[in-house]
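Obj: model holo form, ligand = adenosine-5'-triphosphate.
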Amino acid sequence: MGKLIFVSSGKGGVGKSVFAANLGAVYGERGLRIAFVDMNIGLRNLDIYLGLENNVVFDTADVLNGVVTIEKALVRDKRFQAVWLLATTQRRDKFTASEDQIREFYKALKEKFDMVIVDGPAGVTAEHKLASLSADVAVIVTTPEFVALRDADMIDQTLRARGVGRRVYVVNKVNKYFMSTGSLPSVERITGIMKIPLLGVIQQDDAIHLSANKGIPIVCQRGNYIERNFNKIADRLLGY
Ligand SMILES: Nc1ncnc2c1ncn2[C@@H]1O[C@H](COP(=O)(O)OP(=O)(O)OP(=O)(O)O)[C@@H](O)[C@H]1O
Ligand SMILES: [Mg+2]
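Output (holo structure tokens):
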């Protein structure tokens, strides 16, 4: 049975989808069987970050409404041995699944894959609750600013109340200069605010942004510091 990693955040735009794409790419490079599931219902993004937008025919709503099987809706990322994407629907009104249906859907994916990486929506919404069901580990992504940290802590409390026992966080878009001058909260300050383990810190870097927009997770460029950092994050995550 595979593990379901739920990528979440309080504030939007903190880098969940880019993080999810790179994490899955690291595991994909290692030969693990990975399924990405975009659960940002109505606001599909992950297909673009993976460069698969032209290959998507069916989506989560088609699967959950019984139009096609999961196998039919999965799009293969041919850069890897066994990495697949299930894109989300762009029509919110088409997505009418119940909690039990989502649990069954995730269970079927966990039976087929080593890891199911769910890219969730920002904030505490009904869609967020659905997306978080059956999560084995939640990775809460935040940026190093007080508003994002407060919202990340709120998401952490919400997920804990929902029974997600294993929760870690990542600080993304870190600018060491602003941290060192005290203009943004330091890592020490952040660890004082968050109550869960810190999985890793990712620099703000135009290379991450530009590569994502080309549909290439930056970790596919072997040997740079970002790839090494993501590999360490991926190693640590396996321990949860
Ligand atoms: N470490 C980083 N350095 C520079 N830019 C980044 C980094 N991480 C993400 N970005 C950029 O930040 C923007 C938001 O990223 P992304 O779409 O992954 O956020 P999100 O949390 O998934 O957003 P949403 O809440 O809308 O789903 C994108 O333009 C992306 O390229
Ligand atoms: Mg996103």
